[in-house]
């Protein structure tokens, strides 16, 4: 072969400075590109062998080796794949496959943040080497019989040189003479991290080799081990995978040693190629701390984490891997938003997740209930974000009740229809609303627990989906089932108690309602209308303190006419000499009711404690 000099066929001479400038922030991507090229070369040779076009005989195992030489400042990528002839080098290396460097400049000069997406979009994969190298040398020998080894050298301009090579084995070596600003890529730890990030699951064994090991390393005769898993779990048939396989893969990939709740193994060949595993992590309903990670791969090559154009946004709360060869390895997000395959993939993933939830619900309801506290933030968020997901899972949404079991909305409405039709009572704070829960339980009533950070939004969402159903917090309304229909009180009692408490509390706007409850133990409770409370909660959520006055507290004090203490208040009212005791008891009754409704302000709490002490002192004097 005769030596040859020439110019790379591109439309501008400053392509390499442009590559360096726009891709500088993602320099390490060159490792992925060059290792992937080596893997592709091996894969092509395997295909030719399978087709009977080449006889590999008792060939050595296939490999890609990344060899770093700190003394020479070189980094080499070596494979024993298909190799190239001189003509193929001219075709695939000397001609950059894009419609003109001018297009490249025009498209990306103002989009430095999309740097990692540029490589590959214009066929620049191999040329990513020039981000870190002053000189790139290729030594390659084709698999074809009587092929001659070829050397290609380029120093980062448009000029190249083709020479005979001394390479004796089939395959390709790409050697980078690293630039002074890129010598960190000669560090073993750095290289190992990059390879494990991008190439951990490529289908050809990848080895990291020190060209000049230290005396200590050389003397240990360390057995070379590949850095990658060539047959990752998601590429296997689900029938061949055990639960332990899934758990070990989850712990290894996501460094999460809490076992996942369950998982979905995706395996689609038509109408697109899609494989992957989605895990539902154990999160204990801590939505604000919930951080998933979906890793996107292309033919086992890592592309990026959490690409929301491919993965439905609500699935980002999960952890998993998605491998789709129908998507380009590097592509702009604007392309993903328009690609029909992306839309189909997103819909398919949503469908598979919904199907899995339905399968769990129908096949093992008890186990599903055990998962619910962990998965309900994800399910509710998915419903809020995507109507189609809600349509698929609406029958599998369950609610924990104050009875301790789990029911669907239909089941709750059916078994409480005789108490309150189309009304769902709920609890947002099991401790703070304990008195109201006890009132319900004593009468055989139940409420659902909706105490998560998403639940305020979810309640409104459900009311929009089912307009005939109304959600009421347990302290916002008084169920008729709590009232004793056989015991009544007269209108005079209502007027007397209302006037008394308004006078003592100095609030003639105070709403006072007298009812005879089935239980005599509770003297008073406070109710706040559902709509008023929701508006106040929204103001707090969005920090709109300026709107506070628009939605003032409109609590209703409900006095239990059947309670001895309330009846005693009426008797004291007729005794002028007992007015001090009467005022103290009325104020204390009100504060006790408020304490079960919400936390007292500091000043009110101080008064409550002082008043309690005073009442105890008065009782002690009477005893003496």
List keywords for this structure.
5-stranded mixed beta sheet, 20 helices, alpha+beta, 624 residues
Distinct helical segment count? 20
**Mean residue pLDDT:** 82
Characterize the largest beta sheet: strand count, sense, and whether it forms a barrel.
8 strands, mixed
What is the global morphology? elongated
Percent of residues in β-strands: 15-25%
Which class do the helix and strand fractions yield? Answer: alpha+beta
Instruction: Give the strand order, joined by hyphens, for the main sheet.
Output: 1-6-5-4-7-3-2-8
Radius of gyration: 36 Å
Fraction of residues in H or I helices: 25-40%
Number of E-type strands: 21
Q: What is the terminal separation in angstroms?
A: 121 Å
The parts where pLDDT drops under 50 for at least 5 residues are 97-105, 111-123
Describe the structure.
It is a single chain. With 624 residues, this protein is α+β, with helices and mostly antiparallel strands. Helix content is 38%, strand content 18%. The chain is built from 20 helices and 21 strands. The strands form 5 sheets. An 8-stranded mixed sheet has the order 1-6-5-4-7-3-2-8, with helices on one face. A hairpin with a 5-residue loop joins strand 14 and strand 15. Helix 11 crosses helix 15 and helix 19 (579-595) crosses helix 20. The longest helix is centred in the middle third of the chain and has 24 residues, at 340-363. The radius of gyration is 36 Å and the shape is elongated. The N and C termini lie far apart (121 Å). The model is unreliable at 97-105 and 111-123 (pLDDT under 50).
